[in-house]
């Protein structure tokens, strides 16, 4: 019998001494990180965000992604029950010197943020040619 895994959103904890300015929940987006030959690919699930509501910053080697989600308001209706939590998204990553920080690219489609983190020249794998000795 196949085993199913239930996924739930995890609320982000504000760093010690940091207060939020919006009265909304903040979630930690689920992320996949895939290593390719010349870059890392980071995919973050952030339902409800688009290119105008996501902010990506890089400061002191810390890459922070923040997505702002406005709750959907239905005119002339009152929410009676909800199982899906609506809120913002925030997650931070410390980048090593193996990433070329000047060439990071970002795009978003259907609530999935895609970051391409190019490897620096020194971090790329290099093949060493082998020659036969006589």
UniProtKB/TrEMBL annotation:
Residues 22-133 form the SHSP domain. It comes from the Bacteria. It holds the Pfam family HSP20. Belongs to the small heat shock protein (HSP20) family. This is Hsp20/alpha crystallin family protein. It comes from Candidatus Nitrobium versatile. The lineage of its organism: Bacteria, Pseudomonadati, Nitrospirota, Nitrospiria, Nitrospirales.
């Amino acid at each position: 019998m196949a085993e199913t895994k239930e996924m739930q959103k995890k609320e982000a904890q504000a760093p010690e001494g940091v207060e939020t300015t919006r009265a909304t929940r903040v979630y930690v987006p689920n992320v996949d990180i895939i290593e390719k030959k010349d870059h890392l690919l980071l995919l973050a699930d952030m339902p409800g965000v688009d290119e105008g509501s996501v902010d990506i910053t890089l400061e002191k080697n810390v890459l922070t992604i923040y997505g702002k989600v406005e709750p959907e308001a239905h005119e002339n209706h009152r929410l009676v029950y909800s199982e899906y939590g609506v809120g913002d998204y925030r997650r931070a990553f410390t980048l090593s010197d193996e990433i070329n920080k000047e060439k990071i690219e970002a795009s978003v489609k259907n609530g999935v943020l895609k970051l391409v983190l190019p490897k620096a020249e020194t971090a790329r794998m290099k093949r060493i040619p082998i020659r036969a000795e006589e």
